[in-house]
Design a protein that fits this description.
With 118 residues, the chain is mainly α. It has one domain. The radius of gyration is 14 Å and the shape is globular.
């Protein structure tokens, strides 16, 4: 896989990692404590801007069948969530968000991804 595809996939997995981490969400998305600068809206936009092409061209990105399946399932469940919810403080502890968080963790497991510490 070439460097551009690695970067794109890495960006997607970094976003999925943020979605899997409620402490990150509380610290950054809700309280804005930093040092990261991020928001739920940014995560949603960035994820969908990149993920469509990866799913459509999954063979070009060397995804295994399992990786494709779990990423697609996460994508499909996450896709409609922002239309019904827009403020993390209101949804972070709901069962619906817990399902999204769990699916994000499944993606990370399938890709054996761990967030890089800076």
């Amino acid at each position: 896989m070439d460097i551009d595809k690695q970067l794109i996939l890495g960006n997607i997995l970094e976003i999925v990692c943020d979605v899997s981490d409620k402490e990150y969400q509380r610290r950054i998305w809700i309280r804005g404590d930093g040092p990261e600068v991020d928001s739920f809206d940014d995560a949603v936009c960035d994820f969908f801007m990149e993920s469509e092409s990866v799913l459509e061209r999954n063979k070009d990105f060397s995804l295994t069948n399992l990786q494709y399946q779990v990423l697609k399932k996460f994508h499909d469940e996450f896709e409609n969530f922002p239309m019904r919810h827009d403020w993390p403080g209101e949804f972070i502890d709901t069962p619906e968000w817990e399902k999204i968080v769990s699916l994000a963790k499944n993606v990370l497991d399938a890709f054996q991804y761990q967030k890089k510490l800076v």
